[in-house]
TrEMBL record:
This is Argininosuccinate lyase. InterPro entries: Arg_succ_lyase_C, Argininosuccinate_lyase, Fumarase/histidase_N, Fumarate_lyase_fam, Fumarate_lyase_N, L-Aspartase-like. Pfam families: ASL_C2, Lyase_1. The lineage of its organism: Archaea, Methanobacteriati, Methanobacteriota, Stenosarchaea group, Halobacteria. Residues 1-22 are annotated as: Disordered. GO terms for cellular component: cytosol. One of its GO terms (molecular function) is argininosuccinate lyase activity. Pathway: Amino-acid biosynthesis; L-arginine biosynthesis; L-arginine from L-ornithine and carbamoyl phosphate: step 3/3. It is found in: Cytoplasm. Residues 1-10 have a biased composition (Basic and acidic residues). HAMAP family: Arg_succ_lyase. Belongs to the lyase 1 family. Argininosuccinate lyase subfamily. Keywords: Amino-acid biosynthesis, Arginine biosynthesis, Cytoplasm, Lyase.
Amino acid sequence: MSDGGDHETADANADSETVVRRDRFAGGPARSFLSSLSDDERIFAADLAVDRAHVVMLAEQEIIDRETAGEVLAALADVADAGHGALPDGEDVHEAIESAVIERVGPDGGKMHTARSRNDEVAACIRYRLREDVLDLVETVVGAREQLLDVARAERETVMPGYTHLQPAQPTTVAHWVLSYEQALQRDTARLLDAYERVNQNPLGSAAFAGTPFDVDRERTAELLGFDSVAENSMDASATRDFLVETTSAVATLATTLSGLAEDVVVMASKGHVDLDDDYASTSSIMPQKKNPDTLELVRGRTGDAVAGLNGLLTNLKGQPRAYNRDLQRAGRHAWDAIDSVTESVEVAAGAVATADWPAETLEAAAADGFATATGVADLLAMAGVPFRTAHEVVAEAAAGLGPEEDAPDYAALSAVAEDVLGEPLSAYVDRDQLEAALDPAESVAMRDSRGGPASDAVAKQVSVAEDVLAADSEALTDRRQAVSQAADRRQTEVDRYV
């Protein structure tokens, strides 16, 4: 990603193919090594937007005349229509666009670069494009949460086994499990929206790093580009890439959430606890009976892309002195790669869960494995007045006496242990019907009706709260998109005044 050079103005007599470097620096074996033009296609449209806002501001501030501004803006429209592939050779997209403008306008085209450096220019372009990527990712996550909530509503009564340490632990429901990931995605959404606030700041007008003697209006370019505020200190504004770090960190955290979901589904599929739709599975090249959860394995694997991107970005930045250094040319790609990879992962992971079949009978039977209702029995005794640790001891002793084919002790076995530990039979504390109900996975789930628990009513409340948060996040996304769109309309209206 471009981040080249720190020359503030263009010589009107410069050759258009070497508009920045001139003849002295135009050749040599390192030219291609320095160039980021091919990678810069991602910020081509962003650069054109930044150029237009800057030129409008220059004309409004009477730094360049209206006629020159009109010619430059018309040339930029022609460059936009021709596309990135038609740009002349250049060290980066910024030089190439400027060269293309000079080709069309003549030497006065170089006035476009008055009162700025490629340093503040590229910082503005990266922020402009990155905010679009962040909003696209937020939209994808919001859509995924909608899908998960649909599953939660449909599977509210579907009992399933819950695990800790991959061992049978307690019965829960598919809805409760799904909502645990929807809750995590709420936080991932919040982190991305929070990072957006730091991304959406205007560095233009900072020039190389030490400001400019021209009477620039940084608030005006912020308004025309849809930035919420101005990045105040000119050295920090041109040099910093911590907004990339914050965004990539949020993306890596999101990827980790998805990796956990993917791992759960892979394990469930191996036990026959979920049947993935064929669109999200594949078969073996040699074993035709197999149905593999390949898409979820790739979701899990792509987490490495995001984590590597964060590590690569931090390593790139950690040793750089203030202000601009060419290392920054390699910084942006880490964020782009992470965002692209994880955006696809969100779509696939949510789609796999939303289209899966959850075999209710199989899941409920598995929910009783390994005496998974043991805690419910201990809770029942504790509610009858037995100290919980004592109740825990009763149930633990009963569990220790289970045969290899037994998943839970019967009433008689529990009563015998209770008499041994408590000195009284179970009937002194709970009746048989209560205890046998506690041994049933569905009844065990129904008991757990505390806030946030898996009982049906508790899940319904969680869904209701999640719907409210989702609506608020959707509104925040819409507000930000509208602000960006309105800024584009304002910018075009101003451009039309000159062209």
